[in-house]
Each structure stands twice: as C-alpha cells, then as structure tokens.
Amino acid sequence: MGLMTSLTSSVRNAHQDFMSGLRGHDDGRRNGKRLVDQNGIPLVWSEHAEDYVPNLLSDEAVKYANSLDSETIEHTIKSLQDCWQFDGVLYRGQVGIAELSKELLLNGKSRTQDSWVDHYKQAKPKGEFHIGDMPLHHAIFTALLNQKDKPESTEAREFIRAQMRSKWLMTSTRIVYQPKGKDKVIHGFGTSEEYLLEEDIVNPNRLLGSADSKALEAILGSGDLAKVKEVYNYINRTNAYIWGVNSKPDSVIEMVAGFNANSGRANLNCDGSPANANPALGVRFVAQKNFRGQKK
C-alpha cells in the first residue's frame, strides 16, 4: 500500500499552530524566564491557537527529538513499485512515513521553484509526489544512512547519487539574504506549510565545518555536524560543501536551495537563482506520531 493521501486535519492544524507561533511577537518569556512544557521545550505564542505551543525548532526540542529517534522510533524501509518507503522518519518534530519516488517529478522536467510550487498545490491534495523542502530531503537521506545495511537503502542511495551527480535538484526552500541582521530561511516556500527561520547564512563557499552548525540547523533541520557529514558521505562517498552568498548584499537577495554533487564533493546549495529551471525529486510525508511520540 502507498502512503496516506494527506495529512490528518489534526496534524495540519498543528503545523498551522507552529507556524503562527514562529511569527508571533511573544517569545514565551515572563519576568526574564522562559516558559517551557513538561519536556522542557520552550513555548512560543501561537496567534492561530491563541495559546502557547512548543517551539519545535529550539535546541531543547532537537535534543528531545533526537532522544525519540534513538530510543522509541522503529525504522523500516521498503522498496515498492513506484517508490521507497521509510517508516520512522523524523521531520519537523514529528515522526512519520516518507516516500521517495523512483522517478524524478514529471519524468525529470525542469521548472522554476515558483512553477514547482504550483505543481505542489495540485499534487499534494491528491496524495501525489511533489517537491519537498531541504529538511525533508535531509530526513530521507538520514533514514537511508540509518538503514545502510539493507539492500533497499543501497538501491535508493544509488538513485539519489546518480541524480545529484547529473542534475541540480530543486527544493522548496528559499533563502532571503538580508543587508542587515539575520537572513531568512523559508521552507515550503509559497505553500500552505511555509514556515520561516532566521539565521546567519552568509558564508564563504567551503567544506562543512564547525562554524556552519547553526546555518545547517536552519537549512537542513539538523545542526549535528558529524551526522550531517556522515549522511552526505554515505550518499555521495565524498565530503560535503556549503555554497551561498559570500558577503552581506547591498539589498535583499532571494536564492533557491538545492542539492548537486560530483565525484569530489556533495553540495548543499543556497545560491540558486529563482529564475533558473531545474528538476526535483518526488517526495511525500505523513505524520504518524506527534512530537511526544504518541500515535495520532
């Protein structure tokens, strides 16, 4: 059987709550102290829920999610007729099932990010494969590493490596570089699940190093440098590099994020022009458990 065709309304509402919380003005502090939930996760105010909700992108949330990943999540991988299916994928603070199509979207057709977003809006409600953001791709790549001894993982890895080495793979993540202050990382750009993070992304083009941890957290959803390196070494058998705008621009610059590779390196690209047309991997994700590991 394939993936569930859409997120349940409760999961969708949770996403909306979280996104509203990120955009709210209340950072969950009272008298200089942070408000936290029973698991120590900082709370932020959600205008949508009219209540405080866990900040799933905080350091505390990441640590808690990692403990779930290592202790309570069952990982499986299946090779189905049209896709590889991964159970136990941790994405945006939720555990669920992800699927990776065995073909590029629209048979490898190249489109701009805006055009892929239009495709997403048509495909997602019908449960079809669609473009994903950088964190979902990274979550799937991590799932492959976690099950690297299984033949299905090797099969999927070879497909991804072949596509990355021959194409610049588009995602739905957009980087908005700012002349002053932190840059903006928009995941799910232009979709109903869009959410925004702020971090310093401007960097020299370079081999991933300790100085990139915070940027990786914002771009990939993981700032665990050692694990990130391990993931892309597994996928491409090389080191990984990050590419982007190298100095603060004079005015706002918008760039598209994506992946490509060659025999010498895997590239995390944060410097694609929104005007460029590129192919994309086809992905799907449905949450099976909420942030605290309880089944929906």
Short recap of the structure:
30% of the residues lie in helices and 28% in strands. The chain is of the alpha+beta class and 296 residues long. The longest helix has 16 residues, at 151-166.
- Weakly predicted, low-confidence segments: 1-26, 291-296
Number of helices: 7
Q: Compute the average pLDDT.
A: 84
Report the principal-axis shape.
globular
Largest sheet: 7 strands, mixed
Strand order of the biggest β-sheet: 10-9-8-13-14-12-11
Task: Quickly give the structural class.
Answer: alpha+beta
Strand content range: 25-35%
What is the succession of H and E elements?
HEEEEHEEEHHHEEEEHHEEEE
Radius of gyration: 18 Å
> How many strands?
15
Span of the ends, CA to CA: 19 Å
Share of helix, binned: 25-40%
Number of domains: 3
Describe this structure in words.
It is a single chain. The protein is α+β, with helices and mostly antiparallel strands. It has three domains: 9-59, no CATH class; 64-157 and 280-289, no CATH class; 169-272, no CATH class. It is 30% helix and 28% strand. The chain is built from seven helices and 15 strands. It has a seven-stranded mixed beta sheet, with helices on both faces. Strands 5-6-7-15 form a four-stranded antiparallel beta sheet. A two-stranded antiparallel sheet has the order 1-2. The longest helix is centred in the middle third of the chain and has 16 residues, at 151-166.
